[in-house]
Every structure is written in structure tokens, then in C-alpha cells.
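[job 4471] stage=fold_predict status=RUNNING
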Amino acid sequence: MAIHVGQLAPDFTLFSDAKNEVTLSSLRGKNVVLLFFPQAFTGVCTTELCTMRDDISYYEGLDAEIVAVSVDSVFTLDRFKKDQGLNFLLLSDFNKTVSEIYDTLYGEFVFGMKGVSKRSAFVIDKEGVVQYAEVLESAGDLPNFQAIKDTLAALN
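[job 4471] inference complete, writing C-alpha cells
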């Protein structure tokens, strides 16, 4: 079932790149930019997350926490974060449960892979309500960064 603007964001707990459990509801009181991305170390995913890295001060200025989720393992995400100097949480949805709840899962991806997260962006306000939702069918497309920023600016 698709996630819609105005609904409470489904809560979840996943392991981070640092192997710590992170629960979405523990971030209440901050705005959250929740990104789903197909795979670490791929071109478009690297561009997307490095764009967020490079704009981190803007997001912090809007009291926003960036959280990026993929089906990669915590070990892969740890390496990816270090290699790219990423300065926000990466969460492993290795079992694909959260991607399924957020309806951001490809049935089939490239090279016959099944169950890879679709590139998606959600803005969740300080009370846990979804204020922006974008699920992209093409893994080659980037989220609308300006719409994410505009949504966050309107919340402050």
C-alpha cells in the first residue's frame, strides 16, 4: 500500500551502518528526510547521496535528519559511507520489510535481482506525519531535491 501525504509514517527499526538499531519514531521532534535507494556504489545512488551530503548544512538548518535506506548489508553500507564521506544515517533493510511497508520495492531489478528498493523520498514532520512522498519507477531518476527543500522550509 502506497504511503500518502497526511498519514502517519509507518514506524520501523533497522540496523545502521554502525550496526546500531535505529527506530524512526526515535527521531520525532525533528523533521526527517527518509530516502530509499537501490544499491550502494552505483552511479545514480552515489550522486543522490553525495548531493545530500554536500547540502547537509541546509538540511540541518531546517532541523532535518537525513536517513537513507537500502537493502544492502550493514557491512556494505559502512564501507559505502566511509568511501563517500557520507554524514548521515544509512540503514540496512536487508530483509526488505521496510521497503515493502513503504511500497518502495522493485519486483525485479537489473541482472535478475529481485527485491531492491526503489529510489524514493519522504519528508516526515516532527510529529511523524508524511508531508512529501515521491516514489520513482526509474532507478536512473533522482528525487526532486527542490521539492524536498520546499516542503521542509514550509514546515519551519
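[job 4471] summary: The mean pLDDT is 95.
[job 4471] exit 0
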